[in-house]
Amino acid sequence: MLSPLDPIALQRLLDQVAADAPSHFGEGKVADYIPALAEVPPDGFGIAICDVQGNVYSAGDGGKAFSIQSISKVINLVIAMQRLEEDDIWTRVGREPSGQAFNSIVQLEVEKGVPRNPFINAGAVLITDILVSRIMSIHWVLREQARRLAGNPDINFDARVARSEMDHKARNASLAYLMKAYGNLQGNVDEVLDLYFHGCALAMSCVDVARAFAFLANRGVSPLDGSVVLAPHKNRQLNALLLTCGLYDAAGDFAWRVGLPGKSGVGGGIVAIVPGQMSICVWSPRLDTYGNSVAGLRALETLVNGLGVAPLG
Ligand code: GLN
């Protein structure tokens, strides 16, 4: 077991994990259903840790910006949990694992337009609908939230990625229209999708993401500036949701292999939370069939074993 407070050993472990990553570069493939993502060189790897004191460690391309994609669903949900009443959110979206692909429409019809959770696409689009209807200048609010959480004023939307997603919106639009048909989604579908796609198109590095989500490891308090991001009970609820739903229909396998709350995105990023200790972000673009980074998952497994962190016992 390695003390997370031992910076030299921690850095050595990260360097080791980054050096091992290329052995998995042949596995999986880059998301190509969003053309702008298909252009990303497939064989990169980055990793970063932010501990609850705010210390940051990174290796590989840990400082290189990537498209955070579904990791943005957590930022959207944080904004909703900060600003809205519980009933405004949880009467319209569930809190159960879906057991279905992140972009599946099957369950949504059976369950009358109420998405299982906020981390599958339908649920995230629904959260975006709530934000659009309740919050002025929401694109600005979203970008500011990302910047403030990460402590990086240079974070921005990648306009090309957002446009590419809008140009290939058919599946997400179909989810949105089905929820509208059931009366759950209330706004204009294209306006809602525009915000959803801009969130997905936020460009952040592993260092940014690890810093941005370190509050989740610290009972809702940002270790960067001491601000309260979420009250402790909401922070616990969000971590619970990340553990059960953060990796879609691979959430069970992720809990088995890594044992941490986490969230993945089809840009190849995965963020994982070690409650009381640190947040970790890994990035590598090649994905498995569930849409999760192959080398990223392997790196997280190696890292948690090396660190000896095991909040589930
Ligand atoms: N923008 C992607 C989509 O809507 C996000 C999916 C993901 O990262 N899993 O399909």
UniProtKB/TrEMBL annotation:
GO molecular function: glutaminase activity
Pfam name, any one: Glutaminase
Keywords from the named record: Acetylation, Hydrolase
This protein's record includes keyword Nucleus: no
NCBIfam families: Gln_ase, PRK00971.1-1, PRK00971.1-2
Family stated for the protein in its record: Belongs to the glutaminase family.
Protein name per the record: Glutaminase
Origin organism lineage: Bacteria, Pseudomonadati, Pseudomonadota, Gammaproteobacteria, Pseudomonadales
Gene encoding the protein: glsA
